[in-house]
Amino acid sequence: MSKSAGLLLACLLSVPALAADLEIKDPWVRGTVPAQKATGAFMQLSSKGGVTLVGVASPAASVVELHEMVMENTVMKMRPVPRLDVKPGQTVELKPGSYHVMLIDLKKPLAKGDVVPITLKVEGKDKKVETVDVKAEVRDLTAAAPAMEHKHQH
């Protein structure tokens, strides 16, 4: 990829998507190894008026679900969730170890730099469901959530 194409791609991926009163920031997908059939997609969601994420889809996988990780007794478990509320003025982070989009039965391995299209189905306060298309960049297999800014005084 040329430097200018890479720069253009980086700019496009960093622009928040606005639709259905939903703002999406920093969408990304964890890369895979050749035989791996599932991975996670992550992003930050916010809404001025409040919306509910009611579905997800992607041509990159046969099955796409919204999941959450929860601690039950002393065991971390992953389970699908049918809906996720994005309350007014708050940010919901889809991140490793928490809520995330699960891409299952991948059509092909995902390499760093690939772009995965993801469609979010969003229900507004009026109960109308709209779709929001997201382009998520594939990051390295070992990628973790972006470091959050940490400030404190000594």
Main sheet characteristics: 11 strands, mixed
Secondary structural class: mainly beta
Q: Count every beta strand, where a strand is a DSSP E run of 2 or more residues.
A: 11
* Relative helix content: under 10%
Number of helices: 1
C-alpha-based Rg, rounded: 16 Å
In CATH's first tier, which class applies?
Mainly Beta
CATH superfamily: PCu(A)C copper chaperone
On the 0 to 100 scale, the average pLDDT is: 85
In angstroms, what separates the terminal alpha carbons?
45 Å
Count up the domains: 1
Q: What spatial form do the alpha-carbon principal axes imply?
A: globular
Question: Under the CATH scheme, which architecture would be assigned?
Answer: Sandwich
Low-confidence stretches: 7-18, 147-154
User: CATH fold name, please?
Assistant: Immunoglobulin-like
Strand content: over 45%
Give, in order, the helices and strands: HEEEEEEEEEEE
